Amino acid sequence: MPIALTPKLLDLLLHLLDHAGTLVTKEQLLDAVWPDANVTENALAQAVSELRDALGDEPSAPAFIKTVARRGYRFIAPLEPLEPTDQAAITPGAPSAETPRDERDRTIAVLDFTNVSGDAESAWLSAGIAESVTADLHGLRQFRVVDRWRVTEAARRTDGSLHEMARELHARLVVLGSYQRNAGRVRITARIVDVASGEALADAKVDGPLESIFALQDQVVVQFASELGVPLGSAEIARPAARDTSSLDAYRAFSEGRVRLESLDIREMPKAIADFERAVAADPRYALAFAGLASAELVQYEATRSDNAPAHDVLERAVRHARDAVRLDATLAEAHATLALVLVSASQSAEASLVARHAVSLEPSNWRHLFRLGHSSWGEERLRAETQALELYPDFAFAHFQMAMVHVARGRLRDAEAVLRQGAAVQDRQIARGSRFPALGLHWLLGLVRLADDDVEDALAEFDREHRLAEPHRLYGREYAMYAMHGRGAAELRAQRPEQAIADFKGALQLYPHHAPTHVGVALAHRLIGSADASRAALAAADDAVRTLATHRPVEADLVSAHICTARQDAAGAAAALHHLLDTAPPGFAGWTIPVEPLLQELHRSQGFAGILTRLADRAR
């Protein structure tokens, strides 16, 4: 009988099976299943307990997994290896009733196609062909097809070898391919390889003019299907029509723009926008290109989101282009998911949640859409969506940040800390491996949580880690570098070291000269050393910033007003500003940092602050 296991429990079971009959120590299991992660033996014990439950095993009378006290575990059930007796037993298109096969056996990953000729002009085809073959394999409905984003990440995390990639992606099947362009023609060769046996299950060879690249790509999977014995029912591959464009120029521009977009390097965004604009100019009905354009514009806007006056004109264009994508193809989940993202940034959270739910209904197993639903929603719905996203893609560290936000707003800082430590371990491992977009912000938020518990030294260590990781060219890099320095200043202020606090706050202001909370921090530090004039000047700078924020970022204006009132020992004014924030903010996560804002610490002891925290927690249910 099939048993449903999470990827982590499957890894645990496979490692025990690989060492069946022998003792596997706790340390060996932690290293094998959670490499480089900061995971305790309690997590291992919980995982073993969940695996036993799934297997129907009893710890007191084990049939499968025996505990060796204080040392580790031993898999004790007898194993009978199964050898496939014919091609049908290992071919995904022709399953044998006598040969059980778990989900891993049907999982297939398409690697980038090799540019044999080394022609720079056709380099865009490397990812473009792989994307198309991936989409067509989805259409066969015979495989669990690995998301291309994950394939690219795995290539960065490993040495790129076939077995390393397959292991990283939990895929038994891999598509390897190459192409060669000669003048106006292109030749594509590809094969499906069973990594476990080393056998090629299907081959494809196609050749034709470059302008027929769409038909050539589809023929690759048609030939795969023929060799695997998978009936197509017609000559057409069942895949989303929205991917299609009849314009080679549009397809090339889109493919080049997507590579730049997915780097999430803010230096590449103007070029990405230009690529997508070329794509939609070449084909004004290319819905996927409009979604790409909106995404690139959103990244460009997000790089300014912590400015007192962000680039709202760029955000407005992103909303418009995302709506164009939905209008052109209402069945395109990527269009709805993109619209949800940009609507969140535009503070239209109610519509964003509806749109994100629709994206998930169109593609329920797409982890990116589930993440976007979590980003668009709040409270319990966000926790559910991000948990589902992590089940599909356990290495997406930023989902932990999104979940921790809910716990912070609820005032459940211990839960937030636990989630953040898990996410930070994943993030740090990704950065060490050179992953394209490891999350930022986890160490910063963990520092705020530790500072809220008055652990100044631990908080400083977390802020320092954040600052080291926040490269300015990465999306949110400059922002979190500033937040790390601001957090450092607040921690030094808590430790009654005002000179060092001023130095840290000035470091934050070098990145964002008009950051109002940092000016408040400077004012408090100068007050501690008796510099009244400097303190007043810093508060005046914060007052000036609030006037700009009131026009462009009203929620932030209320929060900063609370900071300023707290610094001026006006608890009633601070409470009024926070109540106004909660009264006027759109549904969602506005004000979620209030419980851990270090410059509001004095407010915690004031009458009525508990009511603010209760209101914030109620919003996060």
What does the model show?
There is one protein chain. The protein has 621 residues and is α/β, with parallel strands linked by helices. It has helices at 7-18, 26-33, 41-55, 87-90, 125-140, 148-157, 162-169, 213-228, 248-263, 269-282, 287-302, 312-328, 333-345, 349-362, 367-376, 379-392, 398-409, 413-432, 442-452, 456-469, 477-494, 498-511, 516-528, 532-552, 554-567, 571-584, 609-619; strands spanning 23-25, 65-68, 72-75, 107-110, 114-115, 144-145, 173-182, 185-194, 199-209. The two termini are 38 Å apart. The model is unreliable at 82-101 and 238-243 (pLDDT under 50). Helix 1 crosses helix 3 (41-55), helix 9 (248-263) runs parallel beside helix 11 (287-302) and helix 17 runs antiparallel to helix 18. It is globular, with a radius of gyration of 27 Å. Among the domains are: 7-75, Arc Repressor Mutant, subunit A (Orthogonal Bundle), CATH 1.10.10.10; 93-239, TolB, N-terminal domain (Rossmann fold, 3-Layer(aba) Sandwich), CATH 3.40.50; 248-364, Tetratricopeptide repeat domain (Serine Threonine Protein Phosphatase 5, Tetratricopeptide repeat), CATH 1.25.40.10. 59% of the residues lie in helices and 8% in strands. The strands form two sheets. Strands 4, 5, 6, 7, 8 and 9 form a six-stranded mixed β-sheet that branches. A three-stranded antiparallel β-sheet has the order 1-3-2.
